[in-house]
Amino acid sequence: MTLAAALAFSALAAQAGGLDFTGDHYPTQEAGQSTLTRAEVRAQVLDAIAKGEMLSQGESYLPLSVQKPTNSTLTREQVRNETKSAAKAGLLDNYGA
Question: What is residue 62's DSSP assignment?
Fold first, then answer.
C-alpha cells in the first residue's frame, strides 16, 4: 500500500467514525493534578541524579569526549575481530558505503 493510499484510507476511516479534528473539534484532554509540590519534585530529581538513576540535564547530549568514560573489557583487536565477523554475517548496516 502506498503512503498516499494509506493516508486516504485513514482520513476516510476517521470521517466514517465520526471523528472531526478540524478547527476546534479536538477531543477533550483530561486535566491532571500532581500531589507533589515543585520543591518535592526537585528534591526527587536531585536525589535520582545523585544515585545515578537519572542523567543530569543535558548530560546525555554531551560529546563523547566529555561524557564519563566506561572501561571496556575487550581489547582493540577483539573489537576489530567482532566487527569483521558481524560484517561477514550481514549484521552491520551499510549507510551509503
Answer: S
- pLDDT tens-place string over residues 4-31: 777 777 766 666 556 666 667 666 777 7
Asked if residue 37 has pLDDT above 60, the reply is yes
17-22-24-29 Cα dihedral, nearest 10 degrees:
50
* Rounded CA separation 44/53 (Å): 11
Cβ-count burial of 52 within 10 angstroms (0-12 exposed, 13-18 middle, 19+ buried)?
A: exposed
The pTM for the full model equals: 0.32
Give the CA distances from residue 66 to residues 35, 51, 62, 63, 70, in Å, rounded to whole numbers and listed in that order.
37, 20, 6, 5, 12
As a residue count, the chain comes to: 97
Position of cell 549507510?
A: 95
